[in-house]
Hints:
By secondary structure, the chain is mostly helical. The protein has 13 helices and no strands.
Amino acid sequence: MTVGRLVQTDADVAEGARWLAQHCPRMAYALEQTGPLPLRRKADGFAQLLSAIVSQQVSVASAQAMWAKLEGAGMTAPPPVTRATDADLRALGLSRQKARYAKALAAADIDYIRLRDLPDADVVKTLVAVPGIGNWTAEIYAMFSLGRADVFAPGDLALQEAARALYRLETRPTERALRQMACDWSPWRSVAARLLFAYYRVIKQREGIT
Length: 210
């Protein structure tokens, strides 16, 4: 099994966007509204996943504040997190549950270098085995930290709402329904996600929501 195509440059994103526009009139319309799409590549590794855990179910401002405290305390690598007590982590702003998830991630001993070479399904399988990491976090990590071209995160509410608006659906598609819709966007599903994220921002700006 092979990793497949990667999205590593703005040119890769543009290629995927052109393919989507050529294969779907609604995607072409969305691209007209958004303009060129951002690369949105992030680093991979423990810190990126820990940051995702910290960001769950809190505002952007709260997540940033907690992350700044963790960075300031040197708690963004497995060894210090492993040594820390729950009280140490809670003192830095983590809830009891997130402190448990952070320690579980540190104890998982994931080989992040090897993860780069695993097929998409194996990446997701490896990550969701860790408490606190669900399909959404694993798929977002595969898309933006590993640069996988054909991964999608149908559980994302922004993607669901963007798809509802773009395809003029009566109701927001379920995770299962959106996963099925995304099959039509293969082999560029992660670029489709970028386009839908961008389109979501466009429709929210139209509604006066920033």
